[in-house]
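Long-time lurker. I teach an intro course on protein structure, and each term I like to show students one example going from raw sequence to a predicted 3D structure in token notation. This year I'd like something fresh instead of my usual example. Would anyone be willing to generate the tokens for the chain below so I can use it in lecture? Attribution to the forum is fine with me.
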Amino acid sequence: MTNDELERQRLLRELTDALRAFTDKAKVRPLDGYHETPVEGLVVLRSDHRMEPIHRISKPALWIVVQGLKWAVVGKQRFDYSAGEALLITVEVPCSCTISRATPREPFLGLIIELSRTVFQEVGGALSSKPDRVASEPVRSAIGITLNRQLLDCVLRSVRLLDTPAAIPVLYPSMLREMSYWLLSGVYGPQAMNIGMARGQDRRTMQAIRQLRTDFRDTIHIEARAKAAGMSVATFHRQFRSVTSLSPVQYQKQLRLLEARRLIMTNHPSVGETAYKVGYASASQFSREYTRMFGTSPRADRAV
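-- Reply from a regular --
Happy to contribute to a lecture. Here you go:
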């Protein structure tokens, strides 16, 4: 084993201890395993058992596994990752994830660290050499990565800040910049640049995805979306599917249903009211598609 790998293993052990200590202090163990922290955009994950899939919309982020196993489906792509690995999300996208290995003796431990588009633009602009994608390499909304020792060290220092809340607003922004630097300057730079530095057709595709994320309740007019992106309809469809692995209509549907479930689980509106709020004209169609996606009806979820 190389010195670099030995250092990675040491950092992973220390990160495991730090996350376990943080979650041991929690007065209440969240059912979904998501522990909010004083750091905005940083969530600690812990579970002592395997879990059913959780559906959510992810912002650009690192989903990191520190101990245990996890899988995630982003669009239609499945990713399996383990300790020291992460999923790099480059654009807001619907996803589902679950913990596939965890026990009380060796609980699943992980992190979600949201990444800033603005910070990526600033850091990328300061790089002496910009990451460049090979023409044949497609843009992806998510890629699996292995955390190098520099990233692990930065993540560990970020977690240790949880013990000194007063230091967080002063020090964490610089750590977020450091993480952005290691992502952009390393082997994953060509994909990481999509968070804030995409160019040309890639940039217009990412903008179109972000726009659809904002106004997903509205009817999609593909011709208008393609024209706004400066593409033909066929090219727009191809680019959109290349990034998200979904068509624009499929992407919109998942966004609508995820927002519907959030409303139902938190505010408990009627099924018809929920359907209308997320853009459905037919409550019966909404119920069918909701049940198909989540395996339970909106009425059943509303009653929980």
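Some talking points for your students: The mean pLDDT is 91. The first helix runs from residue 3 to 24.
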